[in-house]
Structure formats: structure tokens, C-alpha cells
Amino acid sequence: MLELARHVRRLAAVVLASAALTLVALAGPARAEFGVASFSSSLSTTQAGAHGDFSTTIALNTDALGNPDGQLKDATVTLPEGLIGNPLAIERCSIETLDRFACGRASQVGVLGLSVVACRGVTAKLAASVEAGATTIVVPNAKAFCYDETNNGNLITIGEGAEAETVRIFNIPDASTIELQAPVERSHAAGEVVTHIAEPDSGGIPLFNVRPSPGYVATFAASLLLANVFVDVGVQRDGRLVATIHGISTVLPLQSTTLTLWGVPAASSHDAQRCNELDFECGPLIDGEPEPFVTNPSSCSGPLQTELNVDSWQGRSASSVAALPTLTGCDALALAPSLTVTPSTTRRDSPAGYEVELTVPQAASPSELGTPPIERISVRLPRGTSLSPGLANGLAVCADAEFEVDACPDASKLGTAEVASPLLAEPLQGAIYIGAPTEGERYRLFLHVGAGAVAIDLRGQVVADEATDQLTAVFDHTPALPLSRLSIDFFGGPGAALANPPDCGAVGASAAVSSYAGQVADASSAFTIDEDAGGGPCPSRSPFAPRFAAGTTNARAGHSTPFVLTIARADGEQRLRSFSARLPAGLVGLVGSVPLCAEPAAAAGTCPQASQIGSATVAAGAGSQPFDVSGPVYLTGPYDGAPFGLDIAVRAVVGPFDLGTALVRARILVDPTTLALTIASDPLPQTLGGIPLRLRGVAVDLDRAGFLFNPTSCSAQAISATIESTQGTSTEPTTPFAVGDCSHLSFGPRVTASTQARASLQGEGAGIVIKLVNPSATTSAVRTIAVQIPKQLRPRLTTIQHACLAAGRPGSTAGCPAESIVGRATVRSPVVAAPLSGSIYLLAHGGTALPTLFTSLRGEGLQVDLEGQLKISAKNAISASFDGLPDVPISSIELALPRGPYSMLGATANLCNAHPALGYRLGDQDGASANGTSRLAVSGCPHPTRRGKARHSRAKRSRRARPSGGERR
Amino acid sequence: MRRASCVALTLLALLAASAPSTAAADSATVHVAFRPAKLGSSTTIALDFQVAAARRGTLSPLASVELRLPAGVSAGSSTLGTATCSLLTLQSAGPRGCSPNALIGHGSATVGVPLGSQTVSERVEMTIVMAPAIDEHTTVLFYASGTTPVISQEVFQAALLGDVAPFGTKLDTTIPPIAGLPGSPDASLIGMHAEIGPQGLTYYRRVHGRRVSYSPQGFKLPARCPRGGFPGAAVLVFADGSSEAAVSRTPCPAGRAGRPRS
Description:
The complex is a heterodimer.
Chain A: H1 2-17, H2 19-25, E1 36-43, E2 54-60, E3 72-78, E4 84-85, H3 95-99, E5 108-116, E6 122-125, E7 136-138, E8 155-158, E9 165-171, E10 177-180, E11 193-196, E12 201-210, E13 218-223, E14 228-235, E15 241-245, E16 254-261, E17 294-295, E18 304-312, E19 317-324, E20 338-343, E21 351-352, E22 354-359, E23 374-380, E24 386-387, H4 400-404, E25 413-420, E26 428-435, E27 443-451, E28 454-464, E29 471-476, E30 485-490, E31 498-499, E32 505-515, E33 520-529, E34 547-552, E35 563-568, E36 576-582, E37 588-589, H5 601-604, E38 612-620, E39 627-636, E40 644-654, E41 657-670, E42 677-681, E43 687-688, E44 691-692, E45 695-702, E46 708-709, E47 717-725, E48 730-731, E49 734-737, E50 750-756, E51 768-773, E52 782-788, E53 793-795, H6 797-800, E54 804-805, E55 821-828, E56 836-844, E57 852-859, E58 862-872, E59 878-882, E60 892-897, E61 905-907, H7 911-914, E62 917-924, E63 929-935, E64 937-939, H8 946-961
Parallel strand pairs in A: 50-64, 54-56
Antiparallel strand pairs in A: 1-2, 2-16, 3-15, 3-18, 4-17, 5-12, 5-16, 6-11, 7-10, 8-9, 8-11, 9-10, 12-13, 13-14, 14-15, 18-19, 20-22, 21-31, 22-30, 23-29, 23-32, 24-31, 25-26, 25-30, 26-27, 27-28, 28-29, 32-33, 34-35, 35-45, 36-42, 36-47, 37-46, 38-39, 38-45, 39-40, 40-41, 41-42, 43-44, 47-48, ...
Chain B: H1 2-13, E1 28-35, E2 42-51, H2 53-56, E3 62-70, H3 87-93, E4 103-115, E5 118-134, E6 137-148, E7 152-162, E8 167-174, E9 188-196, E10 203-207, E11 210-214, E12 219-220, E13 230-238, E14 243-250
Antiparallel strand pairs in B: 1-2, 2-9, 2-12, 3-8, 3-13, 4-5, 4-9, 5-6, 6-7, 7-8, 10-11, 13-14
């Protein structure tokens, strides 16, 4: 080492002295291509994690005269992945000290070997013949030759082939004369070639640890006479170390160089190379504890390689790759991480900042194998800690291209990050960002820390367990660098990325850390959620008292109105599972005016816009700033046994994330008696795209113009709801409901009735059709219809005898005999496109009540049950009354009691002559009434011709003579 | 003629029966009258019975009525029922389907029709016709028809049977169940007024090819009136098995062989 250093120093002087000549020589023979002749690397041991020496040698291309092709300017060596050095463990030498060749042995980290061409290879032709025994030769470029006797630069060859001879230059007195140390043995003719083949001279100089150049983690320097050589070590974004020698002096015609970094610089094996530069005294390191400097990679999975890139001053580049043997002994390495997860608040069900700190102690003793770098970090957050939808408020994502140039937008920042490494004097500071989603990775995390040119980028993602929603953050393929601590501090506040578990209690987080050596080590951390969402002690059980509000925005009776329903829960309450809302009677939708969304579009959430009747907004997330997403509400056809349904299709675009369409379906149930609507939702989605929604509220606004209409009754009603929680609790809030201004509604339905002349007491009996027509749908709806059957039409006992005994099963006509069907009812309403109709049954109720007329009107999936009471007054007047008709706009009601074997009625008189009249009394939904009499239109009566009149008169007289009770036609 | 004789015999035999006494006397009433009430003359027998109002509250449908007529009322010269009308004809066409010569009387009745919680009182008009004999017994059909408050028609059958003194004939009427509203009790006959005899009847016969109307001969009252008047009785048997009985005594009319009213 001593000789080597001394030689190199002397060589430098020679190089300096011959610099001018070198420049001339550059005009010599044509040069070959600049390039790498050979590139190799080696480790002194193949034990993974061991602190062995690393060497790499670069040899450049040379031309036929042995001259380097081109002049090396920059050399960049990318060290094998996982090969690390710890400059902080080694004493630093200042540049000033270095300039004085006074760096101490303790700061030496290795040796820089140099092979330089002091005397370039030169060729010339004899200008004059030379006789044997001559001691001078004449060439035109004598100054291009070298005559330093200390090296091989003074050997020249005169002539070619068998006549050639090699002699040593003694002196070059002028530009054309070369004096030889010994006479030539043969004669040579003018024009013969004189050649000097370059022979590089090699030597090694100590490499010292100096203060890192700006932007580098370490800088090693070797001191020459002419200039210092600096080896700057940086860290690539993938964690690989890169050693670069910049701006290699042109006066140093390097032919090859070897960089050797010691595993343990203080090791005695380096004593011979650990030399003082002033006196070239070499020896052991006396002071200080030995510290490991180079640590082998920790992966035993494959061959390692070193990559080289060189640039010449002439603007040419070249590269090469050197393979290293696969390491062994990875199982001997150890990893012992620890984890700390700390929320910024311990309030349950609240957005919270989270500080996640993973610590990996690094082995510091040269006798120990190094701690293997971490390849994969997987941190599973406590169960219940979830992504908070509220984070989407104002959130942007960082594109990959932005991340690669450290230009992520602030709006994508989720928190701060810090990475500590034994390679770094200070931890690297940075931030964690939400990355632009890709197919297969929705929630990506970008972590960037850096200082100057030193930067570490980690890409990870957050994965939610489909079953438990538990979040796991994974950073894979982390740089193979010693990472002693990784801290991520997720922001808190309303827009926090994370939210605390919904329940109080101790929770735990865990980490699984995998090393490049193959070890997997676990760590865990626990904390306790010990505050209620709003502060204060934790409740024994989460409350559930969601706020409920509902109503129409137009309070005028009978008028078109939007309807709004809102359900909201506070943080800390049990979560919403489903709801059903019972709308007031009379609040009806004109279903017939809306094209119903049919299956399978309804099931797929792809209903046409024509079916839209409103919109819905869903608020999700804990904290004071839940995230709102909205979507249309469609009216569908039959769903889950209900005649109609709602499709609430919310396109969940949460900030930059399109989580797809959250489809909530609801049944619209119709009370068969009041036609009051009940909207009953299916279970609401609790998780979407891996984000527990923590639904805070649902607002439904049915605002399609001309769809919903207020009741025409101004009586006080209520809108009630049943809201269920995911924990099985249900609550039934109620909100009052009333409309006003009923007095403006008119009420004047027209009642007509008709029968046929063909009627009898027995046999087919008689028929009647009673029709109520509402002149306008905006009038008050009919609540009561009472008609008094003309005295000429009487119920038939034979039909009464076949009434359906309905006792015990009100509203059901199942099993009723056909003979109990006495007619048919048809109702037309703007609510539905098609009329509702149904058979009219005569129902008996045993001894408890008078018989009733019952009809179950059906159409378009609706079922409306109407039951009319039959009464017989003291004066034997027969009346039928339907009370409590639903408060819906009705165009017409038709009750037909036709003739037939089981007709309800029989005629007791000739209807053509008797002028039967129907008395009626109508009542509206708000108490107004209208009475009247309608003469029956009798069809089929004979025309009153002269002969007919005569017959009619005779018949009349004849009927008078008959006994009462005789059958009439 | 033979049938007329039978009728007369059976009516007379009603008077021979003894009065049943299975129930309180005020649960039902019966009344027999003769129009005209002239001893030894043709007459129309008017029969009335009523189920007492108190009984109606626990109404069980009337299943049969046995009317017992006094002995001595003679049908020997009666020409009532020279034609007959079948049950089927009555049920399908009503009295209009019957020959006028089959009519032997008319009347009215009151039927209680339970309609759920309310029992309506249906007044029905009755037409009494002679039916073909059954088992050699004179058979009479009652056609009841009502329209108020409901339209109803019923036919029930009676047999004229001999009776024991002091009755001569009994009219044994079987009243079939009159169904009302399902689940409610059957309708029940709660009173009846029937007149059997020529009053109001017009018969027809052909004389030299022409249709000639005439008034038939009715029952003939005996020349003497029993002491205390003519006895009458009614036995009402209800569907639940209970029965009511009532007796009457028609005062002797003033006349050639009669005695003053007591």
C-alpha cells in the first residue's frame, strides 16, 4: 500500500509534467470507440448482511497503442441492491485536511485504485536511416514520446516484424531527435516505424469519508497532487446507492480504476492499506471503536449486479453490468420491528389523525450481521378504524407522473411522513399522498421523503377486508435501505383520512414486516377508545335516536307538491340500516303519469330519466363534515311484493374515487284501505369500495312536477317512520302533517244511475249501475258515498242466502262462492293509468253486523279494498254506504249490480213506468257533503207509439188486477 | 169433488183434537173465525196465529204449525180446489202458473228475517192452492211472496188430517227452513193470517164451450154450535224442538141453529 500510494503520487507528477505532450499526442493515431473494456465487482464474503469489502473495477477501451479511447469524465456505479454503507459510523475528514493530505486513518473507508497512462502510446516514422550502433534517431514528432526513466514510458520499438528492436529513450533534446540509452543493434531505413506502446501504471490511494457533497448521502475523497477525486454516493428512488465520480481530470489518463470500500474500516486486515498520506506510514487504527461501514445485501434470492455508466469528455457514453454471486446465509439475519399506532383523539366514531410509527432497530456491531432492509410493510389498523368518507371533501389525487417529480398537489396530502436511516444524519421529512387510483388499486398511497437530492419514494395501497372492513396499508418493494424508523402522521380534523372505531374499548393494530432476507416479523400496538363521539365518557350502549323530518313543501290541500324526507343520525349513534316511512293518507303520487322503470333496468340501477321522480342525497362519514353524494330517484314497477318501488341510484363519486353506483331499492306499499303509501327501503349499503360509509343521513326529495299531490283533508295527520339500526335497534319517530286551505276545494261530483226495463222479481232480477263522476281531479276527494236504492228495486233473499260468510277474515274474499258476487266496481283515477276494478261481493258477518258489499279493486299492482254497509231503515228503505274512501283524486266510480241468477236486486214494479230514483248523499274528505236524487235512466223501454201506448195502458190495468208479488217484467 | 169432500172432512176433524199444553199459553195466540159466521151455511175459515213478541226475542225458526179446526165444520158441499197445482209449478212460476180453480184461499204472514245484527220483519202475501194429494191426504200449498224489505218467495206444504174431538180436522203445516244471511239464524214465520174458502175466489168452468166464472162453495158450518163456541187450537213446533200451543174458542154465531154468544 505504501509503495502503491507513493507510486500513484509520483505518477501524478509525471502526468502533470507530460500534460502538454499528452495534448499533442491526442493528434496521434486514430482512436477507437470510447467504452468499457471490462467491468467487475466483488464482495469479500457472500454472507448476506455481512460487513465485507466491496470492490468494483472499471477498465476502459484502449487503442492499438494502448491509449485509453477517449477521456473519462464521469463514472457512475449503481451498487447492488441492498448493498449499503454507513458513513455516519466513520469519522469524517474535512476537505481542508484532505487538501493537506492530513486525513486521519479513522476516516479512511477504502482505497481508490488508479491505472493511468503516463506515457501515451505513440507512433512515428524514421526521418532518416539509422545505422547499427547509432544512439540517436530522427522522427518528426519526437516530443510526442515520453522519456521518464521511472516507468515504462521510455520504451520504443523501431521497425516491424523480425527486424524490429526495442530500445529505451534517454533524452529528447529537440522536436525531431530522440537520444537512446543504448545504440541500436540493427540498421533501419528511413520511413521505418517507431512505436511506443502505452503501459499503464497502477497504484492505490486512500479513500476518506468526507462531508457529503450537497445532494448526496456520502462523499468519499482521494487526494492527488493535481486534484482531489470525489466519489459521491447518492440514493436512487428505488433505494439503491449510486457512487459517482464527477469531472475526472483530463490530465489523468485513466485506463482503469478500482473502488474498494471496506466492510469494517477499522479491521486489522486493512492495516497495510490504511496509510498516512504525508509520510506514507501505514498501520492499524489505534483509537475508536470499530464500526461497520459496508453491509452486504440481505437478499439471497438471486444474483446481484452492479451497473456502470461512463461518459467521456468527448461526449460519448458507455455502460456495463457486472454480476455478483448470489448471497447466502439469509436465515442468519434477524429483524425485530416494533409498532406504535396512536390516534389524535380517542373519541369513538370520530374522524381522527393517526400516527403510525414503525421502528426497526439496526444492528450496530461489526461482529453482528446487519439488520436486513425491509421489503414489505403491512400495517393492519384496528378493527373499526376505517377510511373516512369525509376525507373526500376537497381531496385530489397525486398522479404517478407528479409523484415521480415530487410534485403531488397539496390537496392530495393525507399527512406527513418521516424516515430515519443510519445512512442519514437527519431523518428525511416528507408527506404521504393519496395516489391516483388504478385498476386493481383504488386507494394508493404515495410516500415521499427527502432532503436535497436524497429522496425515498414508497408506493403503497390501502386494502379493506371485505368481511370486516379492516384496513391494511401495504408498502411493497420498499428500497433496500436500512430503515430504522418510518413514521406516518395522518392528518386529523373533519377531513381526516381515518375515523376511529364506532365503539369504545381497547383496539389493536398490527404490522407484518418482511425483509429482503425473507424474514417476516410481527409487531403490534394497542390503544383505547375511551371517549364518546361528542366528548365525555363512553356510553354503555350506543344510542339510536335519529332525527326524522318529512313533509310537503306546498301546504295547500289537493295541490301538487314536492315531498321531502330526511333522516339523520349523529356521530356515535348506531348506524342506519333501513327505514320505512308511512306517508299520510291522501298524499298520493300520480303513478300513471310516470313511465315505470321496469326490470332488469331497475335491478341494475339503469333506469331511464323518464322514470325519475326526485333525487336523494346520502351523507356519509364521521365528523362535522360528512361527504354528500346525490343521485336520482326512479319510480319502478312491482318490487318485492309491492306494487311499486323506488330506485335510489347514487353514483358514489367520492372525491377522486368513483366507487360505482350505490343502488338502494325501496318498496312502495299501498294501504288497501286508505291508499296511504309506505316507503320501505332495503338495507342501506354499509360499505362501498371498501369504505365503511358510516351513513349519517338520507334525504329524499320527490319533486317531479305534477307527481305528488297533497291530501284534500285538512285534518291533522302524521308521517311516521320506522328506522332500524345495524345493531337491531329500531325507533319510530313521528312528525305531524297537515295541509290547509281546504276551503278552496270544490266538491260536486255528479251521480247518475241507470237500469234496464228488462227486470223481474225473480229469475234474473234487476240490475242497476250507479256512477259517480268527478268533474275535476282538483276537487275534494270523496270520502263517503251513500245511496238509497229505489223502492222499486229490492234485495233478493235468494241472493242474500248466498252471501259469503266473511266473519273472521275481513277484507278477504278467498273461498267466497261465485254466487256471492253481485256486481262489479270500477274506479278511474289519475293516480293510475288503468282503471281499478273488482267484483262486488255480498258479505255476511254472522249475527254481528248487517251484510256488506265488499270489493277489492285491483289494477296496476294496486289493491284497494272498499266495503259498503247495507242498511234497512225503519221504513224499509234500503241503502248502501261506503265510508272512509281513500283520499285520492278519483275521476269516476262505477258500481254495477247487474241482472242475473244471483242479482242483488229484483224489480217490484215496471221500471219503465215507475220512474225509480236514486237518493244519494256524498261527503268529502274535509266534511263537506252533497245530497241529491238521481232519476234512473231506464233502457229498453218500449217506444210510446199509439198502439204501444194502448198496450201499455192495458198492461197497466192488467198488472193492477194481479195480486201483489206476482212477477213482473 | 172427492177432494173437496176430503178437505171438508179433515177440517172438521181438526175440532176433535185435544189442546196441547207444552208451553205457556201466552207464547202464541190462535184465532179461528168464519166468514160469514152463519150456522149451516157455506163459509170461509179465517185462521190467525201469532208467536208472542216475547218469544220472538229468542226466536227459533218455526218448523211446523198444527192448526186444529172444530168438529162439525162440513166440507161436503165444498167445491174448493177443483184443480190442483204442484209444488214445482208454484216454485217455478208462482201462483200465476196455477189454474184459478186450484186456489182455495189467500192470506198474509209475517216473517222475521235475521240480517246480521238486525231482524227485519218481512210481510208476505200468501196464496193457498190445492195440491195433488200425498199419501191420500189432502194437501195444501202455501205460496208466500214478499218484497219489503227484501224480495222473497217461499212455498210450504200442509196436509189436512183428521183429528179427534172436539176437533174435526187439523191442518198440519210443515215449514221448511227459510235460510237468511249465512251465519245468521234462519228466517222464521212469526204470524199468519189465512182465509180458506170462497171469499175472493173466482173459478171458471166451461158451459157449452164458453168459459164461465163462478164462485165456489166453501165449508159449511154445522147447524148447531157446540157449547161454548167452536174450539180451535194451534200447536207451534220450533226448530230447536220446543213448542208452543194456543187454543181459541169461536163464539157461536147467531143463527138458525145457533146459540147466542156467551
